[in-house]
Amino acid sequence: MDRDEILEVSKIYSIAGLLSNSYFVINRPFRSPHHTTSRIGLIGGGTHPTPGEITLAHRGVLFLDELPEFPRSVLEALRQPLEDGKITISRASSSLIFPCRFLLLSASNPCPCGFLNHPKRSCRCLPGSIIKYKKRLSGPLLDRIDIHIDVPPVEEEKLISTLSAESSIEIKKRVAIARKKQFLRFKNLKIKTNGEMSTAEIKKFCQLTDDALNLLKQAISRLSLSARSYFKIIKIAQTIADLVNKEQIETSFIAEALQYRVKEE
């Protein structure tokens, strides 16, 4: 983290009584609460309001494994913090605002038994239980998650293959270059990444080629994109452009960003 982020996160951990022997938190936080975590435990609060998991993940990662297993009321409380980057805890005597600008990462099975659409194993779930399972995640919450990826089972050939994939070090270099581009792009603003851009900032900083703009127009018509989805696609495409060190958003970047939308079923 940079100096400002270190100070921000260290203040939060100091208030929560979680600072270790050092006075500062240097590395980005990674929080992974269990799905039995309460609403207060996730977003903060209590008789004497304290930061929740979303605030402890500020400038880092919040990983929610088995996302549909979280109570729906707990998940719905994430909707506004994901948009605003902060959570307001109101009490009769006062109100407190905790920062919570985090990267949400979540994982979910396709159905209760986990084998829906599996190429080799059959699903044992009744249709009603699958529908009930999927309804635990509301449309507005899914709409706030930028990238949706289906992860198929690993094939035997790939599992036992001795071929080496791209190393994490090489991937890290690309990410570092992209983050530097974003730092320079927003150096005079309070935001740090593409994901934090407002509508006005998207219009100012994101340059689409004519072909990319035409593809996006077609997508709006055919996919009935909401305003939120429209701007999220541009932000994702801008990040893809940064990762390959391109100045403009090209058609292929928009096409890839569209593939990450939540699948309609």
Tell me briefly what this model is.
The protein is mainly α.
Could you characterize what this model shows?
A hairpin with a 4-residue loop joins β5 and β6. This protein folds into two domains: 3-108, P-loop containing nucleotide triphosphate hydrolases (Rossmann fold, 3-Layer(aba) Sandwich), CATH 3.40.50; 168-259, Helicase, Ruva Protein, domain 3 (Orthogonal Bundle). The protein has 13 helices and seven strands. The radius of gyration is 20 Å and the shape is globular. The model has no long low-confidence stretch (mean pLDDT 92). It has a three-stranded parallel beta sheet. It starts with a helix and ends in a 6-residue tail after the last helix. With 265 residues, the chain is mainly α.
Features:
265 residues, mainly alpha, 3-stranded parallel sheet, Helicase, Ruva Protein, domain 3, 2 domains
SSE blueprint:
Blueprint: H1 3-15, E1 30-31, H2 39-43, E2 44-45, E3 50-51, H3 53-56, E4 61-64, H4 72-76, H5 79-84, E5 86-90, E6 95-99, E7 103-106, H6 127-134, H7 139-143, H8 156-159, H9 168-185, H10 199-205, H11 210-223, H12 227-243, H13 251-259
Please give the number of β-strands: 7
> How many alpha or pi helices?
13
Oligomer: single chain
Question: What does the average pLDDT come to?
Answer: 92
What proportion of the residues form beta strands (DSSP E)?
5-15%
Rg is 20 Å
Q: What share of residues is helical?
A: 40-55%
Structural class: mainly alpha
Q: How many domains make up the 3D coordinates?
A: 2
Question: What order do the strands of the largest sheet run in, or round the barrel if closed?
Answer: 1-4-7
